[in-house]
Give the backbone structure.
Amino acid sequence: MGRIHDKILQAVNKQSYQPMKARILARRLGLAGGAYGEFRAALNDLVQQGRIEINNSQAIRKSGAKPSLKGTYRTMSSGGGFVKPSPVNGVASPEIRIFPENSNNAANGDLVAIQILRRGNSDRPPTGQIISVLERKSHQFVGTYWEKGGEGFVKVDGAVFSQSITIGDPTTKNVKPGDKVVFDMIHFPSPEQRGEGVITELLGPQGDPGVETLAIIRSYNLPDIFPPDVLDEAHHVAENFSEEDFDGRVDYTKHTVITIDPIDAKDFDDAVQVEVDPASGHWTLWVHIADVAHFVKQGGALDREARSRATSIYLPGKVIPMFPETISNHLASLQQDKVRYVQTVIVDFDPKGRKTTVTFERGVIKVKKRFHYEQVMAFLDKTPEAPEVPEDIGAMLERMKTLALILRGRRFRRGALELDMPEPKLEFDKDGRVSGAHNSVNDLSHQIIEEFMLTANEAVAEHLHSLGVKFLRRIHPDPEPTKQKAFAAFIRTLGYQIDNAEDRFTLQRILAESSSKPEKHAVHYAMLRSLKQAVYSEKEEGHYALASTCYCHFTSPIRRYPDLTVHRQLTRWKRTGKASYDETELMFLGEHCSGMERRAALAERDLVKVKLLEFMSKQLGEHKMAIITGVAEYGFFAQIVDLPVEGMVHITTLNDDNYLYDAESHSLTGLKFKRRYRLGDKIEVEIAKVDIVKKQMDLRPVIAMEEQKKKPNRK
């Protein structure tokens, strides 16, 4: 809000205030004469926002409509965003869509007051406007510096503020136009004036690969440097570790233990072994997890820093680890031919994959062979690229495949859901610039490890639960029935038969039926939107998508702090019968770790988008095939088929006809020629415009362009 807005509100909200006409109020506030135009503009803003009213006598009075909701604003790179209102009297409200013109210069993470403009229904969320910013999340922003008329400005990254920010004395940092900078906001922008800031750090030229990465790190306030006391403690722990000291642990160093990880992995959390009794058909699975808790003492410098970070962050071309590399890539990492401490989960199964016994041990292993996923897949498929593998290890890989498929079948028979939402993987040239991209795969080699990790996580959770120990669970609450009904309504418009969206086996069928169809991405994304978000919590809830009544994260303590807390709970209870954390501490830990997990995901997604847009900016004017992934009143979104990048087709570019939006069928239909753009349709588009600062790409349908060319010119 601007100063004039504040003056008006302060006057009108006083108990002694009596309704009066605009010119009288302006005189009393010292805003008559030359300032009256600005006064009227502010007045109109406040009326539109519902903060004040003008009665039939043209007198200004306090609005009877009070902002009834507040919540945290979450921006979208395409502009505007959503507000998740805080519960009122324990009752949760749905997310409210905020369009850019109603954002009132709020930034991502701000606590805001909102009013509902339009109620939602099964087809669309409610929309609202931000009345005021109650609390700023941050005063630090990142953007691109530019100059005009001797003045300096910064265009803030993303669609955060509609106008650039004025910068005072940029020469102190030797900033040049086109540089990426970090600045502190001194005055936030208002309807009547630009924001004002001061540059605190020069990052470098826009477009430089390292600069764009650093910009994301600063934008999300990611911790990219370890304090000296943390590094000192890590070195001290490493100096005192001896591979000859087994510390009273079970010796697994002679066992056939392997790791399977991404080809570029450096931190190896988990190792596995599988055996089968040929006589009985009973299986034994060993899941060995790095014993990080042995090296990271609760309350120490390493622990405090890891707790603050809560997770490792995997940016394209850069990892920000939760622990210093001395721990994450060396001491705790389960490297081939190295003696390493582990927490081991041993699970016995009958021939049908039903758990019979579960045992937990502190162990020592020496990994016999490190594989990456592509090697394992080539071996199982018997392709020419298959690596040479010792006979005993090759036989175990086949056993692992068989057991994993048994466990996977059991999991789906109990109703587990598996959404195919592949992550984009970038390809870089020698200069660190994107040269291409592809979607990640979830083939059998990945599924083997996934099933074994799910088994270990569930076994630990069930054991701690049976003991009555409070621990940090990974919960996925059941979806809200209203969202499931909305999903069902959407699916029916695409021609799918669905009677009961609350039946998980019906949802499994929908996912399977759509798996080979053009609308697959839209169907899977719509189902994802109908589900709640998985979080860390001390509450005794299950995991909906996994169809698990009791679940936690245990298998990645190098990169996830919640896993480390579960290790501590398990170890201490086994030794002393006591817990390492109380329920209140676990509640706060769950909220913190869930928040840090979301921050990491957003930062990674943002940087992937920036780098992909830089790549696409070199392909302006080119034609690509794309699939429509979302439709709205103002246009539709489409994802390029051979690249994991999405752009927008604005309705104003569909100039071959006048198009009408139909929410029920998620389509835009031309009134005259009846051409229709519908969710899941495959179309040819032209790369029309790329705005890297705003993180947006504009597309134009080729067919609409061709139709426009056919129209005769009118003079």
Notes: The mean pLDDT is 89.
